[in-house]
Design brief:
3 strands; about 150 residues; elongated; about 5% strand; single chain; 3 helices
């Protein structure tokens, strides 16, 4: 037995009604409202992770600097000594030890102190965190090599 489908019946059965579309939009809205807040803290976590990784990279470069120069850069020389030779030590310097000095994920320079407060026999490196000021708590806390 053969069933004849007319053009009108095919068009009617293949279209969505306004109610069906509205139901889908409401379902998508509910899903978005429950899922998006879970990802809001992801950006902060990613920035903290990037800062920790950058600090570890700088710390490694400072250790290579120490091997060649038999000292860490002074606080005055700072991290700039990793990309440019310090005055008077051009012959011993085998850098650059990093390609370029990056800003922390919040757009501020990494801080350096030698000798350090947390590491009196070496150095401290830290990012001041989201607030750009020393100290802080939670996601505004300093991130350092301590």
């Amino acid at each position: 037995m053969k069933i004849n489908c007319t053009k009108a019946s095919r068009t009617k059965s293949s279209a969505f009604t306004l109610i069906e579309i509205m139901v889908v939009v409401v379902i998508l809205g509910i899903l978005a409202a429950t899922i998006i807040p879970q990802f809001m803290g992801t950006t902060t976590d990613a920035k903290i992770g990037a800062a920790k990784s950058n600090i570890a990279e700088i710390e490694s470069a400072l250790e290579r600097y120490f091997i060649h120069m038999d000292r860490h850069p002074t606080t005055e020389e700072g991290l700039k000594a990793l990309v440019e030779p310090p005055a008077g030590d051009e012959k011993k310097w085998r850098g650059p030890y990093v390609k370029m000095l990056r800003q922390d994920p919040w757009g501020n320079p990494y801080q350096y102190r030698a000798p350090g407060i947390h590491h009196p026999s070496s150095f401290d490196i830290w990012s001041r965190g989201a607030d750009g000021a020393d100290g802080g708590e939670g996601d505004k806390a300093d991130i350092g090599n301590w």
